[in-house]
Amino acid sequence: MTGPRPTDHDIDAEAFRERALTSLVRARERTTLLTTCVEEPDLTAQHSPLMSPLVWDLAHIGNQEELWLLRAVAGQDAIRPEIDSLYDAFEHPRAERPTLPLLSPHEARSYAAEVRGRALDVLESAAFRGTTRLTDAGFAFGMIAQHEQQHDETMLITHQLRKGPPALTAPDPVPAPLFTGPAEVLVPGGPFTMGTSDEPWALDNEGPAHTREVAPFFIDTTPVTNGAYLRFIEDGGYDDPRWWTADGWAHVRRTSLRAPLFWRRDGGQWLRRRFGTVEAVPHEEPVLHVCWYEADAYARWAGRRLPTEAEWEKAARFDPATGGSTRYPWGDADPGPEQANLGQRHLRPAPAGSCPGGESPLGVRQLIGDVWEWTASDFLPYPGFRAFPYKEYSEVFFGPEHKVLRGGSFAVDAVACRGTFRNWDLPVRRQIFSGFRTARSAAL
What we know:
This protein is α+β, with helices and mostly antiparallel strands. The protein contains nine helices and 14 strands. The N and C termini lie far apart (69 Å). The N terminus is likely disordered.
């Protein structure tokens, strides 16, 4: 005997429940890989004052999951209330976290596992419609999956900063045919819809959707490559104040920047260190580990500029055939390997021009995945912004101190990457998986 036919309401809820389960499991598999591939001393050490010990990230992931899924959604009592302050990212700067009485690797793993077991029980019975904003469409579960993946990317950065032999392995991207398409693409002027009001797991700074007017401009078809950036270096780019903002030039002099982070010159050859391996800098890959000041200086040297955040998003989402905005450059379907290099499948960007399946209707490639792309814009709220579910996610970072990055990198999971997703960082940061592409205004 069969039961009643599910309604659309039920089907939607079950689809979101399955998506949440898949996303949480995939994130935990990655967390486990990143925290079991090294011995305990590497988990508890601080490999850079810019980063937390890996064991802090592990317990923090569990603590955030407990706070939001067990306490806020399910109303359960705290498992270990005494550790909340230790894993509050706003209470303790990264540089001082090794001095805290942190959970040991064994304790952190046990704690995160206990939280996850209870969270999956909550997920199994949670109502996904008509309850609260936290549970509608499984938002809280999606938020936690994204949070864990963001910390997985942070831990991957820590692995890159870590000294010693390689601890991670992954296949290289499939070699791509040499890209012979146009160097730049014209993006037509006019209005487009920026941001989103209907992406169920979008984070607060991605909305609300609103109309932006953008003048016509040209944008690079692919991210700037190592080979192109080498020409800037060899032309004395780091020695010429003409290409740098005042703050950027002061930063170059103060820190003696000469090349992207992890690069060094060996005779007539440039080498880089990548996850414990030293290799020749591959000219065809997008440049990686440059700060905003470096990206901006290169663009000026090239007679161009960084795209604004609105320009970047129009290039990534605008479909001239319909006049509408899509979730991704290729449409609304979730990304796969044909569209984007995401999810730590590889430990490097794919060569410029790869993933033709991810090309936008205007012909722009690799807007999603490979490298985070610096934009010219400060991180500011959209008109009508409302913080949710807590102001510390976005609101406290708004202002001219932070620059916006877009598009994700090879280290980003698909659950935390879409055409509206906004990342931000200080203009001096280089340990992140950051690159860029350039733009220029079209003559009117």
